[in-house]
Write a structure and sequence with these properties.
The chain has one domain. It contains 2 helices and no strands.
C-alpha cells in the first residue's frame, strides 16, 4: 500500500517537473528572442504579451486548486451587488 502511494507521488512529481521544464523551455526561449528585437515599441509590446501568456498558463494551472475559492468569492461579491442595487430600488442591478 505504501509502495503504491510512493509510486503515485513519484509519478505526480515527475509530471509536474516535466510540465515545468517544457514551459520553462518555451518561455525562456521566447524571452531571449524578444530581447533580441531592436525596436523598443515592438519589444515592449511583445514582452507584455509574454507576461499575459505566462499569467494565462499560471491561471490555468492554479484554477483546479484555487477555482473553488475564487468562485465562492465571486458569489459573495455578486450577492453584495444585488443587495446594494435592491437598496437603491432597482431589482435588475442597473443604476438609475
Amino acid at each position: 500500500m505504501k509502495l503504491m502511494f510512493l509510486l503515485r507521488l513519484g509519478i505526480f512529481f515527475a509530471f509536474l517537473t516535466l510540465i515545468y521544464l517544457s514551459q520553462r523551455f518555451w518561455f525562456v526561449g521566447t524571452w531571449h528572442w524578444i530581447g533580441a528585437i531592436q525596436r523598443s515599441n515592438l519589444r515592449n509590446g511583445l514582452q507584455i504579451l509574454w507576461f499575459v501568456g505566462l499569467l494565462t498558463v499560471l491561471a490555468g494551472f492554479l484554477d483546479p486548486m484555487l477555482g473553488a475559492i475564487c468562485r465562492c468569492h465571486l458569489r459573495l461579491c455578486k450577492r453584495a451587488f444585488e443587495v446594494q442595487s435592491r437598496a437603491r430600488g432597482r431589482a435588475d442591478g442597473r443604476s438609475a
